[in-house]
Amino acid sequence: MNALIAEFPLYASGFLGTLRLCLFAAVGALFWGTVLAAFRVSPVPPLRFIGLAWVTVFRNSPLVVTLFTFAFALPLVGIQFPTFGGNAFFWPGVAGLICYTAAFVCEAVRSGINSVPPGQAEAARAVGLTFQQTLGAVVLPQAIRTVVPPLGSVMIAMIKNSAIVGAFGVAGELFSVDSALSATGRYYALASLTGVAIAYLVITIPAGIGLGALERRIEVKR
Amino acid sequence: MSSVLYDAPGPRARRNTLIGAVVGGLAVVALLVLAGVQLAKNDQFDADKWGPIFNPGNQYFVAVWGALGRGLVNTVLAAVITVVLALVIGTVLAVLRVTSSPTWRWLVVGVVELLRGLPVVVTIYFASRVLPELGVTLPPLWYVVVGLTAYNCVIIAEIVRAGINALPRGQSEAAYAVGLTRLQVLRIVLLPQAFRIMLPALISQLVVVVKDTSLGFVVFNFEEFVRTANIVIQFFGGQLGINLTLQMYLAVALVFILINYGLGKLAEYVQRRTSRVRRAAQDPGAAPPKELVTVGDGLGAA
User: Fold this and answer.
1) Is A167 within 8 Å of B125 when comparing Cβ atoms?
2) Is A206's Cβ below 8 Å from some Cβ in B?
3) How high does pLDDT run on average in chain A?
4) Interface list for B 156-185 with A (CB within 8 A)
5) CA–CA separation, B170 and B174 (whole Å)
6) Does residue B179 belong to any structural domain of this protein?
7) CA-based, 20 to 30 A from A12: which of A157, A222, B187, B191?
């Protein structure tokens, strides 16, 4: 265990690597997931179909298959991802994580919009608000408060899922610290993996506690 | 579709929707055509790439699906064993958390929070690397089961606990009043009802477990469905010079989607059924809070 403390810089850089990966993925997944949710509640059938198809496909197939497809199958059809600091798997990993997580973001946002009682929008229209005003001043402010807690859980799940990208070969990510350490042959897996586990807990447990506090603060009293 | 967002459409809105539908439909078709052209340009429509997987008349079809079938059996086996073990351990954890004195409760809460915060891929890898170091050698399947169970038992513990808490207080009060002991109350009155309420969430969790078996790829030598597919891809690429990567992943995804879509529908059906029974029984206050049902869903691991 003591020897591991000497490897702290390696863990720290892995920690930052995971945060960097998650930052890209979170921005992409939140954006694309919200667009998909807009598709799913829109009155236009083809858009609704795209939303539904996306959610059905990505929510029901394992992230591993999505990642394999992005890394190994897409280059075969001429879609080549650029490398990131000499690492060929970073962008396919981010893209796969975005596509997968967006499906869950979409469902969270959609159920948030649906949780607003129809009477709210009806009342807004009755006093003469336009569509934009109804959406911006009445529906969305209420929807966002119900959406935040499930979105937070989705984001925490995504941080944990980023370990799969690491297992998959993104060097410099937290999970891959173990392969770097075990390659030296100086450490027991028990020690090096406990370090990895602690590093993930350092992210996920405070995030979970923070989310719980936020949830209690913004809870909609109905 | 009734939505919060819009009124019943008038003539102008209907026309705009129609225009949107046509434009959107054309965009979808254009995307599909573009994808098709790209596939054709890269020779992905060759019959020798699709045949071994999708054409029963192909000479390799039986062998390919024989191998994939064995992988699928391992996947299903791992998922089923995991769910059974996680259900047993999770129920024990939930009961411990509900019944134990505050001095011990924090221990259970600690274990739950600890295991819940770890990525499943880490728990599986941990089991496969650390157990042998400690002198426990198991068949590869069991490393996956141990890793998956470690995570899923705490999720199920939370589901069961939520189910117990969702029951009206009168249930346990009445049970105590007729003189049942604490464990009897749980065993005879609370748990059976909690399981009924939580059944949809438990089935949703099964979807997560089925998907997560594919994380077994970090365990050396465990041939579940996805690894088997990779082995077939390598064999075809190496021995026959046929690169069927894209087609194989498509088939693998289709199988997973079929299984999990079916399980999802089953969960919805059970959900509808149990809520109808509850309404018919006129049991006020017994309607499960909506959030409970999505527990398995929202956590959506891999």
Assistant:
1) yes
2) no
3) 85
4) none
5) 6
6) yes
7) A157
Distance from C-alpha of B142 to C-alpha of B131, rounded to nearest angstrom: 11
pLDDT tens for A141-187 read 888 888 888 899 999 999 999 988 888 766 667 887 877 777 776 77
Find, in chain B, the residue whose alpha carbon is nearest to that of A206.
B117
Pick B5's closest partner by Cβ from A56, A107, A139: A139
**CB contact (8 A) between residue A63 and residue B302:** yes
Question: Which chain B residue has the Cα nearest residue A169?
Answer: B218
Of A65, A79, A163, which is closest to B256 when you measure between CB atoms? Answer: A65
* Interface membership of A127 toward B (CB under 8 Å): no
Q: Domain count for chain B, please give it.
A: 1
Burial class of residue A183 in the structure, from the number of CB atoms within 10 Å of its CB (0-12 exposed, 13-18 middle, 19+ buried) = exposed
What does the pLDDT read at residue B183? Answer: 86
Q: Is A198 on the interface with B (CB under 8 A)?
A: no
Residue B45 lies in a domain: no
How does residue A2 score in pLDDT terms, banded at 50, 70 and 90? low
Whether the predicted pLDDT of A220 surpasses 70? no
Least CB-CB distance to B4: which of A73, A77, A113? A113
pLDDT of res. B90: 92
Instruction: Check CB contact under 8 Å for B212 and A201.
Output: no
Closest Cα in chain B, distance from residue A176 (Å): 11
Encode burial over B40-56: b for 16+ CB neighbours within 10 A, e otherwise: eeeebeeeebbbbbeee
Closest-CA residue of chain A to B253 = A61
Domains of chain A (ranges; CATH) run: 16-174 (1.10.3720.10)
In the predicted model, residues of chain B with pLDDT beneath 70 are: 1-4, 277-302
B120 domain-assigned: yes
- Residue A130's φ and ψ, nearest 5 degrees, are -80, 175
CATH classification of the domain holding B217 = 1.10.3720.10
B207: Cβ contacts below 8 Å, ≥ 6 apart: A60, B260, B263, B264, B267, B296
ipTM for the whole predicted complex goes beyond 0.90: no
Q: What is the pLDDT of residue B288?
A: 46
Of A64, A113, A134, the CB nearest to B215: A64
C-alpha distances out from residue B100 to A16, B6, B95, B116, B182, Å? 40, 51, 8, 20, 11
Please tell me the distance from the alpha carbon of residue A147 to that of residue A34, in angstroms, as a whole number.
11
Which pLDDT belongs to residue A30?
93
Mean pLDDT, rounded, for A111-132:
86
Secondary structure of residue A87 in the 3-state scheme: strand
Question: Is B74 domain-assigned?
Answer: yes
